[in-house]
Amino acid sequence: MSLSGKTCVVTGAASGIGRAxxxxxxxxxxxxxATDIDADGLATLDNVTRVVGDVAEDEDAKAMIQAAINLxxxxxxxxxxAGVIPLMTITEATGEDWDHVMNVDGKGMFLTCKYAIEAMxxxxxxxxTLSSISGxxxxxxxxxxxxxxxxxxxxxxxxxxxxxxxxxxxxxxxxGTIRTAVVKKLEEDAEGKRYVxxxxxxxxxxxxxxxxxxxxxxxxxxxxxxxxxxxxVLPVDGxxxxx
Length: 243
Ligand SMILES: NC(=O)c1ccc[n+]([C@@H]2O[C@H](COP(=O)([O-])OP(=O)(O)OC[C@H]3O[C@@H](n4cnc5c(N)ncnc54)[C@H](O)[C@@H]3O)[C@@H](O)[C@H]2O)c1
Description:
The chain has helices at residues 16-27, 39-43, 58-72, 95-120, 145-163, 181-186, 190-201, 211-222; strands spanning 7-11, 31-36, 49-52, 77-80, 125-130, 168-175, 233-236. The protein is of the alpha/beta class. Nicotinamide-adenine-dinucleotide is lined by residues 11-12, 14-18, 36-38, 41, 54-56, 81-85, 104, 108, 130, 132, 175, 177-178, 180, 182.
């Protein structure tokens, strides 16, 4: 698999799945624009062009895509990954919580997809959105995050149909629980470890996924190897959604 010659924007690249994706894309030969609201985290990524910004702010989202155009005159790939992951029941959550999560996970993904497609419409391209098992099926404590991830699945399907004529492919990945730094931190105390072990037990493969395992699926969908795949929501979940 190669991304050589492709200019790719990865949002939320300072940590977790986005970071693993940016690192893999560099290994696969891509020119990578790594964007995040976390400037310190971004500063530790090598061999990328960094853009600090908030995906939910119109001008920032535009600047992330423009950085690719400035570098290469085009954008070939967008990985719409930036997001927040708060776990709340509907009785715990407030209207402000809803607005915050939908603003980042929903509007932020919409804006970055919008500006990427405006730039890709005459050249073609590929977009991968970060959905989740929670963007396909129900889970407890995800009264806001879950619906926000349905936005990611929905954007993949609707934009795939709307833009297939322009050779823009749009797919989503739906990861199960992934062992990012936040999850590793949870494992440090007994109660957190019990929670993480419980999550692992819910996945038929009886373990959590690693960020690079999601990054590999994203790279495949972004690459020309996936040239006839669009509108798909690909589980990367150790069998979770197959149950
Ligand atoms: N970790 C999991 O188990 C899991 C499972 C399914 C889906 N996902 C999805 O994968 C994506 C990445 O999650 P992760 O686990 O790597 O999380 P993470 O917290 O490690 O990384 C998210 C990144 O997004 C950045 N970010 C947050 N708000 C932003 C904003 N407004 N503008 C720009 N950047 C912003 C953060 O600074 C961070 O670097 C998310 O969309 C998440 O919903 C994660």
